Amino acid sequence: MDKESNSGVDNDLYAKHEKVYPRQVHGLFASLRVTGVLSLLGLYYLLPWFSWDGRQAVLFDLPERKFYIFDLVFWPQDFFYLAMLLIIAALALFFFTALAGRLWCGFACPQTVWTEVFLWIERKVEGGRNKQMKLAKGEWTAERVIKSGSKHILWLLFSLFTGYTFVGWFTPIDELSVSLFHFTAGPWETFWVLFYGFATYFNAGWMREQVCIYMCPYARFQSAMFDKDTLVISYDVARGEPRGARKKGSDPEQQGLGSCIDCSLCVQVCPTGIDIREGLQYQCIGCAACVDVCNEVMDKMGYARGLVRYTTENVIEGKPLNVFRPRILIYAALLVLITTGLFYAISQRIPLELDIIRDRNSLYRTTEDGQVENIYTLKLVNMDERPHTYRLWISGLPEAELLTRQHEVAVDAGAVLELPVRVRIDPYELKKISQEIQFHLQALDQSDLTITQSGRFVGPLH
């Protein structure tokens, strides 16, 4: 094979990346996207600055293994709640994807949110789409150097502020601010500020749609969650074709044309550079920018809106709309059930943990006076923000005696105390070889702070 044919193969397989310059668009979905961006970024940047009860309102203190969320304090022992939260997040993704496609990608994904900010900065510095393209193709004049340099400086400053805020979720942001200002921040804080900052800079500034198209796995497996009743952004081929230019107010039927005037604005506003008229594509992130701009064109032409719209494949084919199908109802029911369960579990959560560990060296032992004794190690975890003194007692074996060096134990806030105890009973009082026994722990200064855990008492066979 000659060099010319080899070159042709290479060009087919490895197309050079062309930067996408999305045109700014206005409309319902654009307003919703801006609202989402402002809300999410507002939470991200402002929440670490709120104080609650003399501390940062939301703080994930990894060194101290404490996770503060307003009035709640979670510990590693509360991993169960995190597991439930992850299940809820996964179900929510399944639910919204099956219902209306890539809503997450188009309106709430961090890549989309930060890219919107970077695009806004780019437009403010370099101008609209046409000016950006003209500037990029022109010579490196003083104007281009100033504008391009200013843009990247603003991108970097915003990215570093993003990395600084990210670390502020894990290190008290007041302390972090002082240490960064005086150049005394620790190596890990410095590393994560720079790492997250430059990751934001490259992902939202340079890579943009390439992250969505090539790096994000969601784009690849989303089709497994779609069906013909999923609401997706679609082009109405029957109404739009054949496409062609025409004068404003003209009747397309008399010209043998469809409603699409082939203005290509739907392509120009797309952040991933696709043509929605070619059908549903995995590169589509569901931002609905093409819906907004097409509706504007239809309004100007005097045509009905909805040539490009959120609809289902079945509706496009003339079948009835069927949004609330069994899988949607099942996802919704599971979401409501698990979310309700999570909030109920948190509302009933007790900042106290009691683990019972039986002596593994022997099942039981017999004392000199003939009584049977089991040995346990109790692990008391005070997950409250203040110290407590607890009273310890047992139940379940009426004639059993709890032997310990102290029946009232003081545990500091966030501390773990291991307490060896013995439970002794006359073997004739045992009804079975193994019986259940309850250990009770109650704070002396807070009667509702109490916990009960079950253990096993093992005795000899009569």
Summarize the structure.
By secondary structure, the chain is α+β, with helices and mostly antiparallel strands. The chain is built from 16 helices and 16 strands.
Structural class: alpha+beta
Report the β-strand fraction as a percent range: 15-25%
- Average pLDDT, rounded to a whole number, is 90
Strand elements, count: 16
Which ranges are low-confidence, i.e. pLDDT below 50, for 5 or more consecutive residues?
Answer: 1-14
**Count of helical regions:** 16
**N- and C-termini, Cα separation:** 92 Å
**Structural domain tally:** 3
Gyration radius (Cα, Å) is 32 Å
Anisotropy-based shape:
elongated
Residues in helices, as a percent range: 40-55%
Description:
The chain is of the alpha+beta class. The chain folds into 3 domains: 12-49 and 101-223, no CATH class; 227-316, no CATH class; 352-458, Immunoglobulins (Immunoglobulin-like), CATH 2.60.40.10. Helix content is 43%, strand content 20%. It is built from 16 helices and 16 strands. The strands form 5 sheets. Strands 8, 9, 10, 12 and 14 form a 5-stranded antiparallel beta sheet that branches. A 4-stranded antiparallel beta sheet has the order 13-11-15-16, with no helix packed on it. Helix 5 crosses helix 9. The protein is elongated.
Key words describing this protein structure:
462 residues, alpha+beta, Immunoglobulin-like, 3 domains, five-stranded antiparallel beta sheet, four-stranded antiparallel beta sheet, 16 strands, elongated, disordered N terminus
